[in-house]
Amino acid sequence: MILPREKSLTSAQLAEVEGILAEYGCTVTVISGTTRTIYAISGDERDEEMVGRIEGLDYVERFDRIQAPYRLMHHASDLSSHKVRLGDAVLGDGFHVIAGQCTIDPMNPQYFLETAHAVKEAGAVAIRGGVWKPRTSPNAYQGDDKALQILLRAREETGLPVSTEVMEDRHLQVVMDAGVDVIQIGTRNALNYGLLKQVGRGTAGTRTVVLLKRGMHMGPVDEFLCAAEYIAAGGNPNVVLCPRGTKPELDGYRNFPDESISPLLKARTWAPVVVDPSHSVGKAAFVPFASLAAAAYGADGLNVEAHVCGSKGIGDDPKQAITPAILARLIRDCKEIHGRSAGYRLPVQKA
Ligand code: PEP
Ligand code: MN
């Protein structure tokens, strides 16, 4: 990672750096952080001669070599002061909630629009809604491009940022053209390195936030952070980590709840952690408890399924969606618990 003396390198300086790196088989990706632009190196950056030549350039402040499998996501990275913004909210500053339907039903757009207004009223800072769905059965509803228009209408009516999942390059192009604020990468694609790279590159230099779910079969914390590194290394540091439960499931729950991973993640990375309690426990009746636990564990927020009339919903909504009334109570209580538990989180033990 190269840190320039000024806020960023000039194009002539960048060209000189690229020329040196190329001699050693390395390339550079420009990453615009909130405070400074940094230059991430891909390739084996251990060559002492190369490092010496770069450090010898008078416009370079430092050449950082973090000895971790992830460098940009590392808590000591030059990106550590980077802030991920979601509309008016700064993730990592307080407790923020993304809420909305699992799936937008294009045959019943009024539900999604009502839900969008209701979750805004309840205190959510962004609205989620699935346009395309990764379904276990190919015979289940797969999503519909028409649902994107409903998502955009919800944004227009509420003024809140919107979030949806992409599963392939075409989805990425469509949501980037539409200016969708948050791109979700689902649990099934958390290890799809090709897609992670495409999303990183496709959103580089924009304000688009990428919410990365934890893979349902992921074990070590570092595996999750390395997946996030692919997105940052593609050029987009606006990454949010989303634990959502893993397999094997705890009998009776949909997955094994993993909100408890939040402090471990926060010890290793600067990135915000937003827990998904809905897919973790998989039943609306249990979602509040997983949410309160996430707040106590110091997560920065929730990504939660809510619906004005869950029984009329599709996808996960009939089982998992909480009502806007519960959401409103939950947001208030989570904020309080998050604030109270902050006292136990100091000093932060960096790993
Ligand atoms: C979802 O958010 O609706 C979803 C499919 O999530 P996950 O990838 O975590 O299952
Ligand atoms: Mn869902």
Summarize the structure.
It is built from 12 helices and 14 strands.
Question: What features would you describe in this structure?
Answer:
With 351 residues, this protein is α/β, with parallel strands linked by helices. It is 36% helix and 18% strand. It has helices at 11-23, 48-55, 109-122, 146-158, 169-178, 193-202, 221-233, 262-268, 277-281, 287-296, 317-320, 324-341, and strands spanning 2-4, 27-32, 37-42, 60-63, 84-86, 89-91, 96-103, 126-130, 162-165, 182-185, 209-213, 239-242, 274-275, 301-305. The protein has an eight-stranded parallel beta sheet with strand order 12-11-10-9-8-7-14-13. A two-stranded antiparallel ribbon has the order 1-4. It starts with a strand and ends in a 10-residue tail after the last helix. Bound molecules: phosphoenolpyruvate and manganese (II) ion.
Largest sheet: 8 strands, parallel
SSE order, one letter for each helix or strand: EHEEHEEEEHEHEHEHEHEHEHHEHH
Task: State the low-pLDDT regions, or none.
Answer: none
Ligand kinds: phosphoenolpyruvate, manganese (II) ion
This entry's quaternary arrangement is single chain
By DSSP (H or I, 4+ residues per run), the number of helices equals 12
Rg (CA only): 21 Å
Distance between the termini: 20 Å
